[in-house]
Inverse folding.
């Protein structure tokens, strides 16, 4: 047997070449390592150490900051909201991305549709927060969502006719406990009862309103007019219909006897109304409270109850395109023969989607879901911008609470560092899972 040996003189140059290659590799990696150490490792280690000191950083308090986290109601609210974000936002985004990715395949202008949905990703969270803060304004004249809600509500329910109207104090009308107005005394049939109101701006009187008038009542009827008891330019007699005063059309008027409504009428263009064929007795003429109900103002999107779902809605608008594009890339790599074979065997599109498409896309869906979990753990901008000051604590999550405690008025960097460590501990498992899954897919 012949043994091959390396010449002694060749070992030295080979070692020097290996050392040189290692030195070059270190030279290339060193700047990245320095940046990683300065921007990631050092802040993490500093935060961990700082979390064991008091607010001023001068006294060692051990685990007191970590105990305080779970005694503070604001921190518990932040943990609860973070849990809602982690469960709701990634689930909805992954589901929406999957549905849209499947549907886009069947759209003729698929590329343009994908571009349209992906465009919000180009908008910064600051700009998106300002957009949705305006969209969620409670005033229907400013907030587009409430303008739509009020429009739909008024189309089906109708708005009150004259929300600011009220009678004069000395005109014999009294206010009921439900906000209605009725005559102070009962009147028999054959009487004319005119009801004068004030407080209606002239610009809010309908254009179809005519000069107020009321015919004389017959023996078995009640007649009258509901009118704006105000003469433009001044003058006129309070409690009486003057020539320049207009009727108030569209008001509901009721005839009430023994606490029960027996007749209802709606005022005409001149404000007149008429109750016919009334039985003998006495009646109270009443204007129901619905005539004066304040206008519907829509939904309080940024109130304590809805502020978190509203902000999640803004987040969905931004990230749906991201989920759709990633899932669409996975969908395009699926084996078409398996899908076509299932269709040839008589499977419906729903069965193909549920039994073939979703199982084959499971790795992609998992990566998208975990990536979004990591992202929502760190959400800050949208909550800080969209949530108004009074409900900031109702919408807070760990990231915003960490900032508020440290720099937003709390000035307690010890507790803020503890919150940062907690956030890191919650994010690391998801990151490790994502990295391991990525390595397995590469092997």
């Amino acid at each position: 047997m012949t043994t091959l040996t390396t010449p002694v003189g060749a070992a030295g140059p080979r070692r020097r070449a290996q050392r040189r290659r290692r030195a070059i590799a270190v030279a290339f990696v060193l700047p990245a390592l320095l940046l990683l150490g300065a921007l990631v490792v050092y802040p993490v280690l500093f935060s961990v150490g700082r979390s064991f000191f008091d607010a001023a950083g001068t006294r060692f308090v051990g685990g007191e900051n970590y105990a305080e986290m779970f005694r503070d109601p604001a921190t518990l609210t932040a943990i609860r909201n973070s849990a809602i974000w982690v469960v709701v936002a990634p689930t909805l985004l992954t589901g929406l991305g999957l549905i849209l990715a499947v549907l886009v395949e069947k759209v003729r202008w698929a590329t343009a549709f994908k571009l349209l949905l992906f465009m919000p990703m180009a908008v910064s969270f600051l700009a998106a927060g300002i957009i949705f803060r305006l969209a969620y304004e409670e005033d229907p004249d400013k907030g587009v969502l409430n303008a739509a809600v009020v429009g739909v509500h008024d189309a089906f329910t109708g708005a009150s006719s004259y929300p600011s109207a009220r009678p004069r104090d000395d005109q014999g009308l009294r206010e009921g406990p439900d906000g209605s107005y009725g005559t102070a005394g009962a009147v028999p049939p054959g009487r004319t009862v005119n009801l004068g109101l004030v407080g209606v701006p002239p610009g809010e009187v309908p254009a179809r309103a005519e000069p107020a008038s009321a015919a004389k009542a017959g023996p078995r009827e009640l007649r009258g007019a509901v009118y704006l008891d105000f003469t433009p330019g001044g003058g006129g007699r309070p409690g009486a219909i003057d020539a320049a005063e207009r009727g108030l059309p569209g008001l509901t008027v009721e005839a009430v006897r023994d606490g029960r409504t027996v007749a209802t009428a709606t005022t005409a263009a001149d404000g007149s109304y008429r109750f016919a064929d009334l039985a003998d007795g006495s009646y109270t003429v009443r204007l129901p409270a619905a005539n004066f109900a304040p206008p519907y103002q829509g939904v309080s999107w940024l109130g304590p109850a809805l502020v978190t779902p509203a902000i999640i809605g803004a987040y969905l608008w931004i990230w749906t395109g991201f989920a759709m594009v990633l899932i669409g890339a996975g969908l395009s790599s699926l084996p078409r023969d398996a899908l076509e074979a299932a269709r040839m065997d008589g499977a419906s599109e729903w069965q193909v989607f549920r039994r073939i498409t979703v199982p084959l896309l499971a790795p992609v869906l998992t990566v998208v879901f975990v990536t979004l979990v990591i992202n929502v753990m760190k959400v800050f901008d949208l909550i800080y911008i969209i949530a108004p000051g009074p409900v900031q604590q109702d919408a807070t999550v760990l990231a915003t609470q960490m900032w508020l405690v440290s720099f937003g008025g709390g000035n307690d960097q010890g507790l803020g560092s503890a919150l940062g460590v907690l956030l890191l501990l919650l994010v690391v498992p998801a990151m490790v899972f994502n990295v391991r899954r990525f390595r397995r897919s590469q092997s």
